Amino acid sequence: MSRDVRRRGRSRGDQLHEVAADNSSSVREAMVHGRSQREAVLHLLSGGLSAGFVRATLQPLDTIKTRLQAARVGKLAGSGGRWRQSWQTIRSITLANGGTRGLYRGVVPGVLGIVPAAAVYMLVYQSLKKRAFRVLREKYHPAGVAASAAAGDIAASLVRVPCEMTKQRLQVGVYRNVGHALRELLHESAGNVGTMYRGLGAQLSRDVPFVMVEFLCYENLKSAVLNGRNPMSPASTSAMTLTQNESVLVGSICGAMAALVSNPMDVVKTRLMTQMPDAPRRYQGLIDCAMRIAQEEGPSTFLRGLAPRIVAKSMQSALFFVAYEALRNRLE
Predict the structure, then answer these.
(1) Which are the contacts of 32, defined by CB distance < 8 A and separation ≥ 6?
(2) Weakest mean pLDDT among 7-11, 19-23, 269-273
(3) Which of 55, 220, 265, 279 could disulfide-link 206, Cβ–Cβ 3.0 to 4.6 Å?
(4) How far apart are CA 190 and CA 181, in angstroms?
(5) DSSP state at residue 97
(6) What is the three-class DSSP state of 75?
(7) Is residue 208 packed enough to be buried (19+ CB in 10 Å), middle (13-18) or exposed (0-12)?
(8) pLDDT at position 315, please?
(9) Of the candidates 98, 108, 266, which has an alpha carbon nearest to the alpha carbon of residue 178?
C-alpha cells in the first residue's frame, strides 16, 4: 500500500517536473521569438529612416552626378573639354533650371523608394549575416558578409528600381514633375510591368559589388577599431559599438572605396534608366550600352560623375552608419 502511494507520488512528481520543463522551454522559445521579432523591427526602422534622411540630405550631389552621366557626347580631346562640359552641366542645373531647387528634382520618389528598400535591405542583411555567423567558421565570415549583402540588395532592388528610374528621369528633365512622371510611367507600363524595371540588370551589376565592398570594408574596419580599443580581449568587443566620430571615418572610407569600384556600371545604369522608348539609337541592353559607350565616347566616360559620386557616397555611408547605429541604440 505504502509502495503504491510512493510510486503514485513519484509519477505525479515526474509529471509535474515534465510540465514545468515544457513550460520553461515554451517560455524560452517565446522569449527568443520575441527577441527576433524585436530585432527585425529595429533593423527595418533604423535602416529605412536613416536611409531616407541621407537621401534627402545628399540629393543635390546625386542630381549633379546623374546629369553628368546622362549626357551623351563624342570623344573629347584632352581633359579640358570634358571639364568644361561638366561645369556647363552643373551651371545648367543651378542657374537655368530654377536655381538651387533644380538640385532637388526627384527627391520625392528618391526618398519614397529608398526608405522601404533600405529597410528591406538591412532586415535581410542582418538576418542572413547572423545565421551565416552561426553556421560558418570564423575564417569564412567575410564570405557570409558578402553573400548577405548581395542577397539584401537583390531583395531591396525589387522595391527601389521603379522609384530610382522615376527619380533619374526627373533629374535629367524628362518629366516636368512627379504628377507628369506618374502619368507617363503608367502609360508606358500599360500591359508590360517590366518597363518599370528597365535597368534592373545594370542596377544589380552596380549595387551588388557596391554593397559587398562597402559592408566587407565596414565590418572589417569596425572590428579593427573595436579590437584596437581592447586588444587583450577581442571577444568582449562584440557588444561594443563605434563612437560617432569612428562611424563617420569608417563609413566615409568604405563609401568612397565602393563608389570607385562601381562607378562604370553606375554610368550604364543611368543611361538605361533615362532613355525613353521613342529615343533615337536606343541602347538594347546592358552589354550593348557598355560597348557603345566605350566605342563612341571613350573608356574615360565610365568615370563620368565619379567626383560628386565619391563625395556623395562617402558622406552617405558615413551619415547612414551614424544614423543607423544611433537610431538602433535609441529604439532599443
Answers:
(1) none
(2) 19-23
(3) 265
(4) 14
(5) S
(6) coil
(7) buried
(8) 84
(9) 108
Tracing cell 561594443 back to the chain, one arrives at 240
CA distance linking residue 68 with residue 179, whole number of Å: 25
Are 40 and 99 in contact, with CB atoms under 8 Å apart? no
Residue 279 CB neighbour total at 10 angstroms: 10
Q: How far apart are CA 167 and CA 171, in angstroms?
A: 6
Placement of cell 507617363 in the chain? 184
Per-residue model confidence as pLDDT tens digits over 161-219: 889 999 999 988 888 888 998 898 888 877 777 788 888 888 899 988 998 898 889 88
- Computed on alpha carbons and rounded to an integer, the radius of gyration of the chain in Å comes to 26
pLDDT band at residue 328 under the 50/70/90 scheme: low
Lowest mean pLDDT among 40-49, 106-115, 116-125, 217-226: 40-49
CB 181 within 8 A of CB 166: yes
Cα gap 23→130, rounded to integer Å? 27
pLDDT at 4 over 50: yes
- Sign of the torsion formed by the C-alpha atoms of 249, 250, 255 and 261: positive
Neighbours of 204 (CB within 10 A): 18
Q: What is the DSSP string of 256-298?
A: HHHHHHHHHHHHHHHHHHH--TT-TT---SHHHHHHHHHHHH-
The residue type of 167 is K
The stretch 115-131 carries a mean pLDDT of 87
pTM summary value: 0.72
Which set of grid coordinates corresponds to residue 108? 520625392
Rounded Cα distance between 272 and 51, Å, is 24
The pLDDT value given to residue 14: 55
The CA distance from 284 to 274, in Å, is 13
